[in-house]
Amino acid sequence: MENLNIGVLGGMGTYATIHLFKQYAEIFPAEKEWDRPRIVIDNRCTMPSRVRAFLYNENVDQLVAEMADSMQYLTDAGCNRIILACNTSHLFLPQIYQKVPEIEGKVVNIIHTCVEKISKDDIRQVYLLGSEGTIESGIYQNALEKRGIKCVVPERSEYGLLRECIEAVKQNKYTDVVEENFLRLLEGHNNCILGCTELPIMYEKYKYEICLGKIYDPLWLALDKLKGEYYCD
Questions:
Q1: Cα(127)–Cα(4) distance, rounded to whole angstroms?
Q2: Percent of the chain with pLDDT over 90
Q3: Does the structure show a pLDDT above 70 at 148?
Q4: 3-class secondary structure for the chain?
Q5: Beta partners for residue 216, in sequence order
Q6: In 73, 127, 145, 170, which residue has its Cα 20 to 30 A from 177's Cα atom?
Q7: How many CA atoms lie within 13 A of 102 on its CB side?
């Protein structure tokens, strides 16, 4: 795709956005910097919680307004592809599209891209790790079910462990307990979606202690999809 300009709505959280930017540098290799597509990142860390907005209907209007504002800002900056660096944030896309309809065609939906890849890999069952909002919404489960793929999720009693892992990455504070919790969550599973943008960072930290089949990182897959567009000519 000629003149690919990538926009990222980040800050949900910041370390996940930093990780995405590192992935961008790896996925778009370049002898010269100008060989890469332009990327504009709005690290809008001041937005309300996406998980609390879904679970408790907290600050939904403010969240939608701020997300729409940032996405319009990225569009005005010349971005023709937009990535939301948060899985749970995708739950609010319908409301955002009502506010700014022209943005819909520019969004690279990381949920859809991930599910498409799992289907192409002929995976029949996959385990989903993510925030409570992402899991409880069924956004992955419903999309996978339509393709005949069974989605297994953690027990609700394990949500506390998930929160501890996600918060550890957000705060960049790792402990032996956090490591034990993460390994416990993955134990006994094979193919896994890291359906919270903090979790691929934790996986990278402890991957040599983990024996799994396929690992799906939705942000990496979204960037890889854009790489295909960029080099298609």
A1: 33
A2: 92
A3: yes
A4: CCCCEEEEEECCCHHHHHHHHHHHHHHCCCCCHHHCCEEEEEECCCCCCHHHHHHHCCCHHHHHHHHHHHHHHHHHCCCCEEEECCCHHHHHHHHHHHHCHHHHHHECCHHHHHHHHHHHCCCCEEEEEECHHHHHHCHHHHHHHCCCCEEECCCHHHHHHHHHHHHHHHHCCCCHHHHHHHHHHHCCCCCEEEECCCHHHHHHHHHHHCCCCCEECHHHHHHHHHHHHHCCC
A5: 193
A6: 127
A7: 8
Residue 182 — pLDDT band, cuts 50, 70, 90? very high
Cα 42 from Cα 157, distance rounded (Å) = 35
Q: The tokens 């749970």 sit on which residue?
A: 88
**Which amino acid is residue 146, in one-letter code?**
K
In this structure, the chain runs to a length of 233
Q: If we measure between CA atoms, which residue out of 44, 30, 27 comes closest to residue 222?
A: 27
Closest among 128, 105, 106 to 115, alpha carbons compared: 128
pLDDT value, residue 231 = 84
- The token pair at 128 is 């989903």
Predicted structure pTM score: 0.95
Six-digit token string for 123: 């995976």
Residue found by looking up tokens 């979606």 in the block: 193
